[in-house]
Amino acid sequence: MSTEEISIITSEKWTSLPAEFRRPGTSEHSENQKRGRHLDSFLEGPVWIPTLSRLFVTDIPYGRIFSIDPESATWSLLHEYDGEPNGMAWNPHTQTIVIADFKQGILSFDPTTNSLTTLISRYHGERLKGPNDLVVSSDGTIFFTDQGMTGLHDPTGRVYRISLDGRIDQILTNGPSPNGLVLSPDKSNLFVAMTRDNSVWHVPFYQDGSVQRVGRFSSYYGIGGPDGMALDEEGNIFVAHSTLGTVFVHRANGELRARVKSPVGNSTTNLTWGGEGLSTLFIVESETASILRVEWHCRGCS
């Protein structure tokens, strides 16, 4: 594929975290994962709830969940707790937001009552390493990544599946920092961002749900790596890179189709579809606590 065929798109800055919600300082998150760097926030986990027509995001270091009104871009603090919430996904079957919390496990948040409950924090009695992101399939099955502090020096990150009957299965146990993930519409393939491997892995399933041959779908470069992911109805896969300020858009066969660039900052960490017709791509730029957006030509997969 030639360079001329790759579209370069610049997203627009839509809104950013208001000053009254910023908290300059350090936290357990900044001490352990940012090597002591001061952070006034670190936004992540965007999710759009169609029934409420609102965007929700997390703030990892201060254990906060915000909602943003799409018309006025007004921010509301919904919940604050002793946790490190990262990825979120909407579960239409339970009408709740499922949260991957690095500190507390997999949680369930009711956006109508703002109540928070724990779904799981252990696997076979062992504490989880530190969940990062998740996706809910059309039938309610939950896939989540358990990243912890893994990397190329310690490739023991895990990917789990929570079935409808409550059974928990390990899908992968050798991931160097598993992060964002998307599931193909027919549920036959899972794509997992391996941040410290600077790649996205392709995980095909047999009909019984067991894993076939895992391979690399795409590879990147830079100090950070791929983070959150999204999918559109054409099968294009969107990969947010955490230190390049870029969302890479791949065709279903892996070819690079477009790059979506950030107008502010280089920390594009996660993304989701929303707006009317689910054709607006909302992108989180974490360092500046900004929400970017791009109008896409087709509908995204929720």
Automatic annotation (TrEMBL):
Transmembrane segments: none annotated. Residues 44-284 form the SMP-30/Gluconolactonase/LRE-like region domain. Gene3D superfamilies: TolB, C-terminal domain. The keyword Metal-binding applies. Its cofactor is Zn(2+). Binds 1 divalent metal cation per subunit. The keyword NADP does not apply. The active site is at D227. Substrate binds at N132. A divalent metal cation binds at E44, N179, D227. Pfam families: SGL. GO terms for molecular function: metal ion binding. Keywords: Metal-binding, Zinc. This is Calcium-dependent phosphotriesterase. It comes from Penicillium brevicompactum.
